[in-house]
Amino acid sequence: MPRFSVVVPAFNGAAHIAECLESVLSQGVDDLEVIVADDRSSDETPTLVRALAERDSRVRLVERAENGGTLRARRDGVLASTGDYVLLVDQDDALAPGALEEIEAALTDHDPDILHFGVSVIAENAAAEGAAAGMTGFLTPPPRRLEGEKILQTQFSGDRGFDWHVHHKVYRGEIARSAWAATHDVRLTLSDDLYASFLLCSMATTYVAVPDAPWYEYHLGRGETFGARQTVEDVLATSERDHAALTLIEDFACSGAVVRDDWPARVADVRDRLIEHVMNELHDGLSAEGQRAAIDGVLSLWPADAVAGELYRFVRDRAYALFDARTCPKSSDELHRLLADARRADELVSGPVSPRYAIMKEAAERHLGDLENLKDERSVRGVVRHLLARLRTR
To answer: What region holds the Glycosyltransferase 2-like domain (predicted)?
Structure first.
């Protein structure tokens, strides 16, 4: 049984797979297996991996009979692993030099079920350069140790949670294999990280995040049109994809695979994070006209209180920005449209509502009140200036 199993899901990755695998094989660690789970590539990926496996016995190719998506490829690779610990590396990313030595030392010091370390974000295009700093912050965990149910309680919390990417983490082998074995045999695009991470954190009993540990090289924008303008169809696809992940998580919570008393709250945390992601894509990627069209589609899948809560978040942020600048909104300001959209969604809200909805609506109303007070103050100041001007002319 090797110390480390490094699983690389691959699909048409011939451009970067050799670089990725070399970064792992050059770590200077022999007690290692590298499993490439090929998702029925149509390029030279399997050929390149077979050739490498002939030269290095640490490399093993697992081939799917048909294309099934990243969740299935990762599952095949993890279930084929035998290591004490499992790492996942994407085909266009890499491990930093000396990463496994650093990881081994951290495992020895802390003995966690999940070891979470940081990233070095490498921007691959101009759009990615602008986002690299924010991505680095998002993917760099605050140092801490969590135990038992606190792990999942913290991960999807709106307060100091941690990211759900399955790379730049190391998992105890039996927990990784149990978690991926419990996943549904479905195609799940992009949201598969969140789904698998939810299961992993449900099963783990110890989690440790270490500081100053940029041991994973994340190539932001490589192999994708990062920064491209979104369409309404793109946002609705994101909405459907994230909703599918939420459904799978709800199924797991009800399955009895892990027993805990707080499943409704933990599922609610995930719902809040997912609808936040959907609405951020809508707000940041679409024109005003596109946002209005997309909101209707999002409302067809997600509860009205979830959608209204995020729209009130945008109202809150815009109202605060105007108040902070001591600027009253003009008739053309987006605040008016955001508020109209929020109220339109709010009209559909009925029954019990989420705490996040109530918090965001209250905050939006408070900041709108601040703007009204600012407007009144300016009106009073205007009247005073007018009176003073008249006095001075007499």
So the answer is: 5-122
